[in-house]
Write a structure and sequence with these properties.
The complex is a heterodimer of chains A (about 160) and B (about 120). With about 160 residues, chain A is mainly alpha-helical. Chain A contains 4 helices and no strands. Chain A has one domain (about 20-150). The chains are: A mainly alpha (about 160), B mainly alpha (about 120).
Chain lengths: ~160, ~120
């Protein structure tokens, strides 16, 4: 009998068809938790105290949406989602670097009167994500490394049977 | 919120988190120990939810926003359940690591909840 359906847990050599196996799932879970955290906090801040720092809270909400899209893009297969994952993760890295720097050097640009990363005006990107244990700074880098190492397998060139 | 109970709960969540992380990284699949640790974290969260609900009649009110507190608490209650189901469906070592990450996330959320309840002020 040909054991084509035998499951050998430690001998998985089949090429990955999606990016959601092994350690990649961990990345996705951490992204999911960050998306949840950023969404929960920004929604609450916007409902409760939007007038305090509208620019910062709007950026926070944008960040939350981008985290959600990135989480979906990491789980969804295909070249299109792969590109979306790159765009969203690059946006996050740019965001955390730009907003993190602004929050330290020129908090007034963001309309912040208080840059305590754990305070009531804290956003996911303030002080490079310090309020989230710097996870927002580290995660995009890990995400990019992961994406670079897990390109969607190049589509096999279509070979029509020309010499019929 | 009860201060000592919350402190114990954060400690339990941290220990469970580190335990699951270590078990996962040495290659263990989700088992009785890791799932049990997550179950303890979940039971304590439900106890915390009960404490929060009965706090108001006893005159125990948060110094910060009650709504913000509940957003954290309800999210935290959902996390171990989601992680546990994931571990049941996806039986790999990474699911054990994920259980650890979930427990540590719960510990951080509990810490934030305690800040909202005790120290946020007006």
């Amino acid at each position: 009998m040909h054991p084509q359906n035998t499951i050998a847990p430690e001998q998985v050599t089949t090429p990955m068809t999606s990016r959601v196996s092994g350690v990649g799932r961990l990345l996705i879970v951490v992204y999911g938790i960050l998306a949840l955290a950023a969404t929960g906090r920004s929604v609450f801040q916007i409902i409760d105290r939007f007038g305090e720092a509208p620019v910062a809270f709007t950026l926070s909400a944008v960040a939350a949406v981008v985290y959600i899209v990135a989480t979906i893009a990491l789980t969804a297969p295909g070249a299109g989602w792969y590109r979306v994952a790159w765009v969203t993760i690059s946006f996050e890295l740019a965001g955390v670097l730009i907003v993190g720097t602004l929050s330290l050097l020129a908090p007034a640009v963001l309309g912040l009167t208080n840059i305590d990363p754990f305070g009531r005006q804290a956003t996911v990107w303030s002080v490079y994500g310090m309020g989230y244990l710097l996870v927002p700074l580290v995660l995009p880098v890990l995400g990019m490394l992961w994406l670079a190492r897990h390109r969607p397998s190049t589509v096999a060139p279509h070979t029509p049977a020309a010499h019929a | 919120m009860i201060e000592w109970f919350t402190t114990v709960q954060i400690a339990v969540a941290c220990v469970s988190g580190v335990l699951c992380l270590v078990l996962g990284l040495v290659g263990r699949l989700p088992g009785d120990v890791s799932m049990g640790a997550v179950a303890v974290v979940e039971v304590l969260l439900i106890a915390q939810l009960v404490v929060a609900i009965v706090s108001a009649p006893f005159g125990n009110h948060p110094t910060g926003s009650l709504a913000e507190f509940y957003i954290y608490l309800i999210s935290a209650v959902i996390l171990p359940v989601a992680g546990g189901f994931w571990a049941l469906i996806e039986h790999t070592r990474w699911s054990t690591v994920i259980l650890g990450v979930v427990c540590l996330a719960v510990a951080i959320m509990l810490y934030r909840m305690s800040q909202i309840w005790f120290v946020q002020g007006a």
